Amino acid sequence: MRIFLSFLAVRSAGLVKLTVPFRISEEIRRNTQKHPINTQKHPKQKHPKQKHPKQYAEIPYQKHPFHFVSSCASFNLPFSSAALFLLIIILQASCYTLPPETSNKYPLLRLQEKYSIYLDATWTTKDAAALLKVFEAVSPELLNPQFSSWNISDDALKNGIKIEFKDKSKHVTISRDALPTEESQEIPSPEKRLFHAVVQFITENGTNRSAIKLIMQKRYGIDVPSHAALPPRTKNNTAKGYSDFSNEDLMLIMSVLEEFPQALHKTPQLKYIVRRIDRIDDEDRGISSAMISRGYITFAESIFLRDHYHRHDTRKIIAHEKAHFLWWHVFDHQLKKDWAKLGGWQQDLTSESGWSTTQERSAFVTEYAYTENPDEDMAESIGFYFVYPDRLRSCCPEKYEFIHNRIMLIYGKRWSPSNPM
Ligand SMILES: [Zn+2]
Fold it and tell me: What is the pTM of this model?
């Protein structure tokens, strides 16, 4: 291709030669002659205004092209200059069409144009591409036109990000360990930590409620209605029995939902979540539950009021309830059948849950998983897989492998064109 373009350049230069040879040769001649004169007399200091017009006027106008003679060859100078000039333009133009250079610049330009994000020299092209991927995945509607400059630091930062305001502009520092690495490619979501950092940025450290609710809706398909707008569920269970999630609650829920592979983020049957106030006379006090047929999850208010140590348990409960929707609406018959076999489950009409197991309690991660059914066993095991993986691995290594290989890796490889992360 380039050879062909070079040939074109040479042919084009031939045409140039016919039309503009004299102007080029004249200019070259002037440039060649004026330097010796200037250096001899330092004319700029003595006659700065008169010198150049006089000199040019004294040079006779030559209509013969100037020839440059080297020790190797003799060229027609205007011809070769024009050819060289065109050759450079054509070769440069052809270079700009090469995919590697275009892809190198694309993340930087896209971040600047769409998100007003400017990266400093600490960012590699690969890092920039990862950042762009996360921004594009969160939601196209979440534009942040305010200028911000971003750098990478080796320091460990809370949530992988630090947002500062200096000189009336926003400065963002990303912790290097929040960026995906080569080793993390096998994990279903290698950009997970970077995702959390970007969500902190977009939601202004978890304070912008409309941004939080938009991410909940766009990424996980879950609405967060105001408790006052909730329809009564039972005669005694009116809107008074519910409260609104705090922003912190929603940030926690999002971080757990993000743990699931991208292909499992949205479950169409899970439409919204509610937060129920625990009452002393409430027989369901402190209990969260997935309302599978009605399309929502009820979270007990008390699970969000625990201290930091017990936040792990809260995370486990959130993952558990989400897993019920997967069991009933996503996992296929074979997967559920294999899971039941792994747990020694068999249907038992004499049992309160309708199921019993042939295995010992030690083969289950909790008492609840042991006494209920394959569905609860799966929900408990998935909750532990995310929050206490070592405990699941030690009690039930085959179940850990089952969840890892049959669910997380399989769904982690499924690509969704609407949400490529
Ligand atoms: Zn359950």
Answer: 0.72
